[in-house]
């Protein structure tokens, strides 16, 4: 869904948490809009998602199969240890899911009170903090994925790959990754470059992104991101939830391609025969489903093995 806003008649001034005063140029119908009746679906507490393409679940199964296989073949006892990159991956998946939940919850609290005499400015301020955290944890998660890729290639082919997702993607653009990996990374630049720019602006260039509220062409409320700086990476008419959904969908499509690659590679390395048809499903409930839910709800992500239960 394409959402646009008439930015010529909208002023972002006064949206800081300690000073929210309607400014000249803000349409009257926008100031009086019942923001609490937003049409966007909130995260369901009892969210349940079933999917075959969950990175941490996939590798958990691989580690288990390798341990069982070693014992069946009479090889020295192999402990079911989890490599450090995989531990980091699981940790950062959870962290990002948590930040998405907290960002969405605080933003909805402010939206519900924005038309009242005393809006919840504290919730607005916290939403901005959690939005920054979403950008930071997204990069940390991607670097953890790169660490997992590096770990398995180092252990099985003695191939030394870059440590960061950014450097791995740059090598992929030049066609310098091992066979199959270049394909897995081929579509990442369409969404990663903008995420990288926003994270780098926050960390290295003193950027302070704010959250604003506008109208789409149908007069409905839309949440946007803006900067007081003249030069900013965020488009002023960009729907914020849709943008985050785009990033989560891009990440999940990358995971889909990566797991197809691992199916072929792990058969060569470990003798594990697997495909999308034989993969075990992973059940994600509540908070742990947030990345996939945002990818599906706001980013348009679809997959034949994806089952969404919002009851």
Low-confidence stretches: 1-41
Which of globular, elongated, flat, extended, rod-shaped describes the shape?
Answer: globular
Number of strands: 5
Distance linking N and C termini: 24 Å
Could you give the topology of this structure?
Blueprint: H1 28-31, E1 48-51, H2 55-72, H3 84-113, H4 121-157, H5 165-173, H6 181-185, H7 189-204, E2 210-215, E3 221-226, H8 240-270, E4 282-285, H9 290-297, E5 307-309
Antiparallel strand pairs: 1-4, 1-5, 2-3
Helix pairs in contact: 3-4, 4-7, 7-8, 8-9
Detailed description of the structure:
It is a single chain. Strand 2 (210-215) and strand 3 form a beta hairpin. Residues 1-41 have low confidence and may be disordered. Helices cover 51% and strands 7% of the residues. The chain is mainly alpha-helical. The strands form two sheets. Strands 4-1-5 form a three-stranded antiparallel beta sheet, with no helix packed on it. It has a two-stranded antiparallel ribbon with strand order 2-3. The chain is globular, with a radius of gyration of 22 Å. Helix 3 runs antiparallel to helix 4 and helix 8 packs across helix 9. The longest helix has 37 residues, at 121-157.
């Amino acid at each position: 869904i394409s959402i646009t806003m008439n930015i010529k008649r909208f002023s972002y001034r006064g949206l800081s948490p300690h000073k929210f005063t309607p400014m000249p140029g803000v349409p009257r119908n926008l100031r009086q809009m019942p923001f609490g009746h937003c049409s966007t679906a909130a995260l369901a507490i009892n969210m349940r998602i079933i999917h075959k393409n969950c990175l941490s679940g996939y590798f958990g199964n691989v580690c288990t199969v390798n341990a069982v296989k070693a014992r069946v073949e009479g090889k020295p006892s192999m402990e079911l240890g989890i490599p450090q990159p995989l531990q980091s991956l699981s940790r950062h998946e959870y962290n990002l899911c948590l930040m998405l939940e907290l960002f969405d919850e605080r933003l909805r609290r402010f939206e519900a009170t924005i038309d009242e005499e005393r809006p919840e400015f504290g919730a607005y301020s916290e939403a901005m903090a959690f939005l920054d955290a979403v950008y930071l944890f997204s990069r940390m998660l991607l670097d953890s994925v790169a660490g997992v890729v590096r770990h398995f290639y180092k252990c099985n082919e003695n191939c030394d790959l870059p440590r960061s997702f950014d450097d791995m993607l740059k090598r992929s653009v030049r066609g310098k990754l091992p066979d199959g990996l270049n394909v897995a990374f081929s579509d990442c630049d369409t969404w990663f470059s903008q995420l990288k720019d926003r994270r780098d602006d926050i960390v290295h260039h003193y950027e302070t992104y704010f959250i604003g509220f506008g109208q789409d062409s149908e007069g409905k409320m839309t949440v946007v991101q803006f900067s007081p700086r003249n030069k900013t990476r965020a488009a002023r008419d960009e729907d914020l939830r849709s943008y985050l959904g785009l990033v989560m969908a891009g990440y999940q499509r990358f995971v889909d391609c990566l797991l197809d690659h691992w199916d072929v590679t792990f058969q060569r390395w470990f003798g594990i025969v697997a495909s999308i048809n034989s993969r075990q499903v992973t059940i994600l409930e509540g908070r742990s489903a947030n990345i996939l839910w945002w990818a599906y709800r706001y980013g348009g992500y679809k997959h034949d093995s994806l089952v969404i239960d919002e009851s």
